[in-house]
């Protein structure tokens, strides 16, 4: 939250030490293995920058032609995000020859994309549909309680990712499996529920984007920017309940 707040803030000029400290904390978070926070932060800054620049251009093509370096940097960043998982362990354990070998092998980048989490999600959905997997009780029923502080911890957990791993992927290590909001929708009510959830998410995205564009308050802009990223990007590997829980954290930060 603070990473985004500082870097999209146009009203306050922070000193260099502030930028250095926040960048250092983000790098440490990344090295600890929490890639999602870094990716979400960079997505937020990039989206805010592109939208601001686009408003001054006649077309998307005009923007792309004038910002070639930014586009190239973005493509390189995507490549880094996809490939870093395959070199992270050898890097921190000092196996530099292995790191060099992998980075110099074109097949490594193809394999990194092939086994990436975004592609793994499709295999989860395939198994859910193939087995016609259905949850015993709705994983959506508990979501309203998430908006009441301190209540959800006393209620039974119905996080879809946990149920999915237990029922369809029991051999995997607990917590190692991503989730899928589309698979969750199917498990709660079939194809009709997928359509309903997609419509709800699109409506929420429209509302979030409208408030993000109209507000002048940087705290609110940061909050709604994060909400937009959660609902448009990060939701692909999460259940709806997890997304709401993450947004609740952003809300607490904004308020307090």
Summarize this, please?
The chain has 256 residues and is an all-alpha fold. The protein contains 12 helices and no strands.
Task: Give the secondary structure arrangement, pairings included.
Layout: H1 2-8, H2 16-31, H3 35-54, H4 60-66, H5 68-92, H6 96-103, H7 106-114, H8 117-130, H9 160-168, H10 181-214, H11 218-232, H12 240-255
Helix pairs in contact: 1-2, 1-3, 2-3, 3-11, 5-6, 5-7, 8-10, 10-11, 11-12
**SSE pattern:** HHHHHHHHHHHH
Which shape, going by the Cα principal axes?
Answer: globular
Q: Could you tell me the strand content as a percent range?
A: under 5%
Indicate the low-confidence ranges by residue numbers. Answer: none
Q: How many β-strand stretches?
A: 0
As a percent range, the share of helical residues equals: over 70%
From the N-terminal CA to the C-terminal CA, the straight-line distance is 12 Å
The helix tally amounts to 12
The average pLDDT value, as a whole number, equals: 83
Structure description:
By secondary structure, the chain is mostly helical. It contains 12 helices and no strands. Helix 1 runs antiparallel to helix 2 and helix 3 crosses helix 11. 18% of the residues are buried. The mean pLDDT is 83.
């Amino acid at each position: 939250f603070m990473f985004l707040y500082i870097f999209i803030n146009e009203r306050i000029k922070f000193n260099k030490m502030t930028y250095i400290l926040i960048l250092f904390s983000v790098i440490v978070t990344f090295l600890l293995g929490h890639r999602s926070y870094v990716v979400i932060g960079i997505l937020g800054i990039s989206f805010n920058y592109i939208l601001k620049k686009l408003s001054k251009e006649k077309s998307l093509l005009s923007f792309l032609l004038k910002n070639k370096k930014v586009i190239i940097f973005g493509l390189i960043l995507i490549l880094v995000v996809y490939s870093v998982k395959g070199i992270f362990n050898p890097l921190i354990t000092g196996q530099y020859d292995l790191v060099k070998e992998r980075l110099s092998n074109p097949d490594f980048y193809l394999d990194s994309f092939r086994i990436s989490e975004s592609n793994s999600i499709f295999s989860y959905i395939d198994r859910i549909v193939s087995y016609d997997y259905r949850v015993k009780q709705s994983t959506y029923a508990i979501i309203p309680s998430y908006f009441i502080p301190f209540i959800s911890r006393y209620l039974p957990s119905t996080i879809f990712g946990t149920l999915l791993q237990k029922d369809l992927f029991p051999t995997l290590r607990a917590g190692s499996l991503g989730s899928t909001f589309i698979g969750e929708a199917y498990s709660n009510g079939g194809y009709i529920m997928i359509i309903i959830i997609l419509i709800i998410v699109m409506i929420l995205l429209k509302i979030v984007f409208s408030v993000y564009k109209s507000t002048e308050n940087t705290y609110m802009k940061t909050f709604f920017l994060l909400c937009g990223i959660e609902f448009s990007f990060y939701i692909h590997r999460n259940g709806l309940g997890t997304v709401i829980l993450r947004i609740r954290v952003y809300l607490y930060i904004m308020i307090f």
